[in-house]
Amino acid sequence: MPLDASLAALLGRELGPGFTTAPAALTAAATDDSGLVLPPEAVFFPKSADEISRLMVLAGRHGFPVTPRGAGTGLAGGALAVSGGVVLDTTAMNRIVAVDAANLCAVVEPGVVTKTLRDAAAAAGLFYPPDPASLATCTLGGNAATNAGGPACVKYGVTRDYVLGLTVVLPDGEVVKTGTATRKGVVGYDLTGLLVGSEGTLGVITELTLKLIPHPREVRAVAALFPDARSAVATVAAIMAGGVSPCALELMDRACLGIVEELLPFALPGGEVALLLLEADGDPDQAARDIGRMEALCRDRGALAVLPAADAARREALWDIRRQISTRIHESAPVYLSEDVAVPIARIPDLIAALPALGRRHNLSLYAFGHAGDGNIHVNITGDTECRPRTLALARELIALVLDLGGTMSGEHGIGLAKRSFIDMELSPRSISVQRSLKAVFDPAGLMNPGKVLP
Amino acid sequence: MSQAHVLSGAARRFLEKHFPGDAAAFTPEEMFVYGTDASRRHAMPTAVVRPSTVGQIQELLAFAQANRLPIVARGRGTNTVGDCVPASGGIVVSMARMNRILEIDPDDFVAVVEPGLVTGDLQAALAKQRLFYAPDPASVKFSSLGGNANTCAGGMRAVKYGVTRDHILGLEAVIPGGELVHCGGRTHKNVVGLDLTRLFVGSEGTLGVMTKLTLKLLPLPAATATLALAFADVDTALTAAASVFAAGILPQALEFMAREALAAVAGISTVPWPAGAGAVLLIRVDGSAEAVAADIRLVETAVQSAAPLWRQAAVSHDDEEALWEPRRLLNPASFKVAPDKISDDVTVPRGRLRQAAAGIAATAGELGLKILLFGHIGDGNLHVNIMHDAADSHERARAQTARERILALCLSLRGTLSGEHGVGLAKLPFLDQQLSPVERALMARVKAAFDPHGIMNPGKAY
């Protein structure tokens, strides 16, 4: 481990009270939502880019790794310290610097919780669309580092589509600004685009300029039950092709519905039924029209039941079903692995059809739910305490299938630690070597979140 | 003439072997047109090749890397900043023959194309299937998708749909040395590894040669409608534009033309708006027929307090076209005002547009120049045409001064030197005003990671 007692003491003197080796802080920084446990040797809670810069200079001088972390809601272990060193927790940098209604943008520090910004924007009549499931706790810095998605992405795009510019501390302690405060900009390489989704391996984000849009005035929801996943997904394709632009299109398979049965507003029939949760937003008239068209398309395509949410409370109840699914799967078994593969939209039925046999072959339970509108399906794998090797074998088989269907192993969670051993299934050796050389451009000493993403 | 301008015998034999017949050109007559683009700059290529296959490009980039030969790839040469001009000599690679639509998949909402395909040709093919590729640079009828990707082209619909980079899911490119890299994929989401796709898009041919693009498609909006509005002056028009967003409407396009631009168009064509207008807004909305009608009513209400002098709405295709045609005539019309122009596409945060416009008008007045101001104000992107006669050295100098002042003004308003045209040769002298030495050095190292010997479009960018 690179941090001995005398170095820790020196860092404490140099960095001040934000630096700690207290066991409680190390324990808190040892986990995220991946289920992995890797305690660092110290944690630093900076208040400014200058303090981060000072830490990086010290890291370079003494050769210890630095792992940036937001709220630790990542599912791939990206914020965990694999080889000790310092976890850089950005949650104390949580100021909203500006919500600028005239320029339709916000300037925030990385530790701002996503929901806090969404609420502040809404108060000004504005909308920050990215809505990862963890939005009540996750941070905007973490969202940018992982390029987080969410249900609204089908209409509004992912986090990278809303990051106009960044301030970043590079591994050598230099501070750079990337991008612009404008909607468009083509001066220089798109370093903003490169940093978003780089999972803390290129630098530390210290400020974000985010794009906002006018807030939709109304949102309407409907749930539709289908006899099988194939007919549900065929409806998704018909809706997407029909010129309606839903702002959420969530799919839940039979296994998912089974664990939330008592929450369902209908009696769960037998067979391989699947549920769609659909939303439309915009003007009150338009949202009503769009939801009406989607209901009609669901009926045309053989929905067994179409259940519109009459008011906000009932809409909330439908989303609670969707959220409870994740929570209950997580709690249902000692071992839990969340894959977030994405396939081209038309291939979703092939993916879902293959899951039961895959689960049986490895003697594991599989649940599929997620963002059907952009092909991003969360496949959750659960099993007993002894099953970890089997889950990895299943994940490998699942990824092979997904790649065969023209998909990707991760739509929104990232690679981190959890999927690192699979990345060469998707990326060619040349692509990996190009990425390694880019990593070396930013971080020649390899101190920035080492052991992540690239093999 | 530098070494790069002379083709060695070995290089010529290599090119003749791998690019047989008319796939290679060596005479000045044949090569001349490949040395220019819409920037009106020119430099003679050392040789020109017109590949039909990815394999040919791989061979070429292996040879060029080994022999340190500059490579300048070009689409249709509509670039306005000199990206396609082989300023340091080199082999120009015309992608025009690689122009096939490889696949349109209406279920996956994906098109796979070769880079030489003309953007308008793809849009026409998609419309037949009620599909939609959103980016629409002004040159859409003759610019290529590869060129659009290399410059991250924008266009009128960017305010709602974003720019080219927002619509490229994946790409294939040959990098110096001849190896093929694949970036991204065909899913609408993908977070595996660093986002090389975004790095290639907008790199102005300085990292590699794109050979295949996977594009994101959308359902074709069922209907569009346009509202044209004339105002007494620029400031009132820009205030009205801001009130459109404040009303919660995100139009498909929001275009602006100031008095001198209106006069230029009126000089070559009839225009629908009254002669005395100080500024015109063209606002297009899209969606279902009902939504479009409702949006137009909302826009009319929103702009009421700015007291438009004149208004006209259009819902049929022909009526809409009649309102948009004058906007498209701006470029040819501008050359009736003066023989030469300096064209910039500065972009400022939307809330700073009025300040930018006022500053540009003041600059025009102080220097006694006609400056045409128009553009995609929905995303803060202003096209500034500084009209002058370059044969008059005093006037040329004043035009240069105007340019420097305008660029400095826009940067001081937290803007950017270029919203969609790129840096190329034209904006290179000003780059350091926007990028810090640390940022520029980082970009230079990024380039070196792909192109260690600097053979890709040398003399451009970073």
UniProtKB/TrEMBL annotation, chain A:
<dbReference type="InterPro" id="IPR036318">
    <property type="entry name" value="FAD-bd_PCMH-like_sf"/>
</dbReference>
<keyword id="KW-0560">Oxidoreductase</keyword>
<protein>
    <submittedName>
        <fullName>FAD-binding protein</fullName>
    </submittedName>
</protein>
<dbReference type="Pfam" id="PF02913">
    <property type="entry name" value="FAD-oxidase_C"/>
</dbReference>
<dbReference type="InterPro" id="IPR006094">
    <property type="entry name" value="Oxid_FAD_bind_N"/>
</dbReference>
<dbReference type="InterPro" id="IPR016166">
    <property type="entry name" value="FAD-bd_PCMH"/>
</dbReference>
<dbReference type="GO" id="GO:0071949">
    <property type="term" value="F:FAD binding"/>
</dbReference>
<keyword id="KW-0285">Flavoprotein</keyword>
<dbReference type="InterPro" id="IPR004113">
    <property type="entry name" value="FAD-bd_oxidored_4_C"/>
</dbReference>
<dbReference type="Pfam" id="PF01565">
    <property type="entry name" value="FAD_binding_4"/>
</dbReference>
<feature type="domain" description="FAD-binding PCMH-type">
    <location>
        <begin position="36"/>
        <end position="215"/>
    </location>
</feature>
<dbReference type="InterPro" id="IPR016169">
    <property type="entry name" value="FAD-bd_PCMH_sub2"/>
</dbReference>
<keyword id="KW-0274">FAD</keyword>
<dbReference type="InterPro" id="IPR016164">
    <property type="entry name" value="FAD-linked_Oxase-like_C"/>
</dbReference>
<dbReference type="InterPro" id="IPR051914">
    <property type="entry name" value="FAD-linked_OxidoTrans_Type4"/>
</dbReference>
<dbReference type="GO" id="GO:0016491">
    <property type="term" value="F:oxidoreductase activity"/>
</dbReference>
<dbReference type="InterPro" id="IPR016171">
    <property type="entry name" value="Vanillyl_alc_oxidase_C-sub2"/>
</dbReference>
UniProtKB/TrEMBL annotation, chain B:
<dbReference type="InterPro" id="IPR006094">
    <property type="entry name" value="Oxid_FAD_bind_N"/>
</dbReference>
<dbReference type="Pfam" id="PF01565">
    <property type="entry name" value="FAD_binding_4"/>
</dbReference>
<keyword id="KW-0274">FAD</keyword>
<dbReference type="InterPro" id="IPR051914">
    <property type="entry name" value="FAD-linked_OxidoTrans_Type4"/>
</dbReference>
<dbReference type="InterPro" id="IPR016169">
    <property type="entry name" value="FAD-bd_PCMH_sub2"/>
</dbReference>
<protein>
    <submittedName>
        <fullName>FAD-binding protein</fullName>
    </submittedName>
</protein>
<keyword id="KW-0285">Flavoprotein</keyword>
<dbReference type="GO" id="GO:0016491">
    <property type="term" value="F:oxidoreductase activity"/>
</dbReference>
<dbReference type="InterPro" id="IPR004113">
    <property type="entry name" value="FAD-bd_oxidored_4_C"/>
</dbReference>
<comment type="similarity">
    <text>Belongs to the FAD-binding oxidoreductase/transferase type 4 family.</text>
</comment>
<keyword id="KW-0560">Oxidoreductase</keyword>
<dbReference type="InterPro" id="IPR016171">
    <property type="entry name" value="Vanillyl_alc_oxidase_C-sub2"/>
</dbReference>
<feature type="domain" description="FAD-binding PCMH-type">
    <location>
        <begin position="41"/>
        <end position="220"/>
    </location>
</feature>
<dbReference type="InterPro" id="IPR016166">
    <property type="entry name" value="FAD-bd_PCMH"/>
</dbReference>
<dbReference type="InterPro" id="IPR016164">
    <property type="entry name" value="FAD-linked_Oxase-like_C"/>
</dbReference>
<dbReference type="Pfam" id="PF02913">
    <property type="entry name" value="FAD-oxidase_C"/>
</dbReference>
<dbReference type="GO" id="GO:0071949">
    <property type="term" value="F:FAD binding"/>
</dbReference>
<dbReference type="InterPro" id="IPR036318">
    <property type="entry name" value="FAD-bd_PCMH-like_sf"/>
</dbReference>
